[in-house]
């Protein structure tokens, strides 16, 4: 990836810390999503591996309330009764578990407003394994209506199948519409006006064979589709609206795209495409994308070898954040140090919670890093453990640290904790 690399972050920070109790340490390879965090106004909300959901006062981190979600709490967002309100009116929690529950709690009291079990639509697990459980993978809201995507996987011998549903919920929890496929959704995003919902599909191995669909939000009607056109079942890694364009990270060909109305391709860039290194063909998946105000950032993940599982090689563009302008010209790129479970964004601020690089296993890279979309790195909070979730709202940043124990060391590093601080 030719271009101008960003400089090292100038400001090392130490965010305020609050322990979250005990959790099994992560290992050398990445575990399933076990934690979630959201922040807005005077509230920081954490979701833990056992379903515990706690709303903390943002200034003191003292608990306001605690509830137990029916599933593992793997995603959180907030709702406001008024778009101009400075604080949240409700907290939405997405689950992974037997019921795949979406639940909405009052932000002041924690009282449950409503609950919806997605397993009623996508089915229940056919095997006692986390990977087979109903999973609410993404939440979006326009401040009034809530959108969600849920999926479930099953396998019987050589037959592999996904079941998935995209939902639009009205404020009282009633289902306005659903969009069902036999593919695996991985991300959803709303346009600025709340008129269209983009849905990215990661695995397409059935009748549904489009990596991106755009739905009309009032009715759920399909407006248009797009696909990288690659062989195999891998399709899209993430989607992000910016006005009337959509940025897409492609797992199919490991490239980044900017699409105009109706899916017209404005430009495409190589991110971590298949590359011959020391006799091996290596690649990395572009897992995240964020577009805002005419700029687009992509984040790549782990190195993989084309013809085998293990490799000592590393793709030169693994674990990087790279940003382009509206014409597809490179602005800056920078290392993120390890696997980024989820990208947190607000305006021109991007936060990357950096977990382990399972091939290198270097604890010195464990950190929460934040960037300015136009200029590059602005800060870093180094961790003993690994950062597995992050959120940002204005000048407030929040992250979850989990302990890690590498298989070739045997030492437990870090703790299960919430970390909160200011970007300034």
Describe this structure in words.
The mean pLDDT is 93. The strands form 9 sheets. The protein has a 5-stranded antiparallel β-sheet with strand order 22-23-24-25-26, with no helix packed on it. The protein has a 4-stranded antiparallel β-sheet with strand order 1-35-32-31, with no helix packed on it. A 4-stranded antiparallel β-sheet has the order 2-3-4-5, with no helix packed on it. It is globular, with a radius of gyration of 20 Å. It is mainly beta and 424 residues long. It has 1 helix and 35 strands.
Structure characteristics:
single chain; 424 residues; mainly beta; five-stranded antiparallel sheet; four-stranded antiparallel sheet; 1 helix; 35 strands
What's the helix and strand layout?
Layout (H helix, E strand, L loop, with lengths): L15 E4 L16 E5 L2 E5 L4 E6 L5 E6 L3 E8 L10 E7 L4 E6 L5 E6 L1 H4 L12 E7 L4 E11 L2 E11 L5 E7 L2 E7 L5 E8 L8 E5 L5 E5 L9 E7 L2 E6 L4 E5 L5 E6 L4 E3 L2 E13 L2 E11 L14 E5 L5 E6 L8 E3 L2 E6 L12 E6 L3 E7 L3 E8 L2 E7 L1 E2 L6 E2 L3 E6 L2
Antiparallel strand pairs: 1-35, 2-3, 3-4, 4-5, 6-7, 7-8, 8-9, 10-11, 11-12, 12-13, 14-15, 15-16, 16-17, 18-19, 19-20, 20-21, 22-23, 23-24, 24-25, 25-26, 27-28, 28-29, 29-30, 31-32, 32-35, 33-34
Strand content: over 45%
Q: How would a crystallographer describe the biggest sheet? A: 5 strands, antiparallel
Principal-axis shape: globular
Q: Write down the overall mean pLDDT.
A: 93
Please estimate the helix content. Answer: under 10%
Kindly provide the radius of gyration, computed on alpha-carbon positions and rounded to a whole number of angstroms.
Answer: 20 Å
* Number of continuous helical runs: 1
**Low confidence ranges:** none
Strand order of the largest sheet: 22-23-24-25-26
Helix and strand content put the structural class at mainly beta
Q: Report how far apart the termini are.
A: 31 Å
Number of strands: 35
């Amino acid at each position: 990836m030719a271009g101008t690399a960003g400089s090292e972050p100038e400001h090392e920070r130490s965010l305020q810390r609050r322990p979250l109790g005990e959790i099994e340490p992560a290992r050398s390879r990445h575990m399933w999503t076990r934690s979630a965090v959201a922040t807005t106004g005077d509230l920081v909300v954490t979701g833990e591996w056992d379903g515990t959901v706690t709303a903390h006062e943002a200034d003191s981190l003292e608990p306001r309330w605690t509830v137990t979600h029916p599933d593992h709490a793997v995603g959180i967002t907030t709702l406001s009764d008024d778009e101009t309100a400075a604080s949240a009116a409700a907290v939405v929690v997405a689950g992974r578990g037997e019921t795949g529950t979406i639940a909405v709690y009052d932000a002041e009291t924690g009282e449950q407003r409503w609950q919806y079990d997605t397993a009623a639509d996508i089915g229940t697990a056919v095997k006692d394994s986390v990977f087979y459980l109903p999973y609410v993978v993404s939440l979006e809201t326009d401040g009034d209506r809530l959108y969600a995507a849920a999926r479930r996987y099953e396998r019987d011998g050589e037959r592999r199948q996904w079941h998935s549903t995209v939902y639009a919920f009205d404020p009282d929890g009633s289902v306005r519409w659903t969009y069902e496929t036999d593919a695996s959704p991985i991300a959803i995003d709303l346009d600025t006006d709340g008129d269209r919902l983009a849905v990215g599909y990661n695995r397409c191995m059935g009748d549904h064979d489009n990596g991106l669909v755009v739905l009309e939000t009032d009715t759920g009607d399909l407006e248009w589709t797009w696909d990288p056109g690659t062989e195999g079942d891998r399709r899209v890694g993430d989607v992000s609206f910016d006005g009337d364009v959509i940025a897409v990270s492609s797992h199919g060909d490991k490239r980044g795209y900017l699409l105009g109305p109706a899916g017209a391709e404005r430009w495409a860039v190589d991110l971590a495409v298949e590359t011959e290194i020391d006799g091996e063909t290596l690649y990395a998946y572009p897992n995240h994308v964020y577009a805002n105000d005419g700029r687009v950032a992509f984040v790549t993940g782990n190195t993989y070898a084309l013809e085998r599982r293990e490799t000592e090689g590393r793709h030169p563009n693994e674990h990087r954040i790279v940003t382009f302008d509206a014409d597809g010209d490179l602005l800056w790129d920078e290392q993120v140090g390890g696997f980024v479970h989820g990208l947190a964004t607000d305006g021109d601020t991007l936060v990357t919670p950096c977990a382990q690089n399972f091939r290198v296993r270097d604890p010195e890279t464990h950190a929460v890093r934040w960037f300015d979309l136009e200029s590059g790195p602005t800060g870093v909070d180094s961790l003993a453990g690994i950062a597995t979730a992050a959120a940002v709202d204005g000048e407030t940043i929040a992250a979850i640290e989990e302990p890690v124990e590498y298989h070739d060391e045997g030492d437990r590093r870090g703790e299960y904790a919430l970390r909160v601080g200011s970007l300034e």
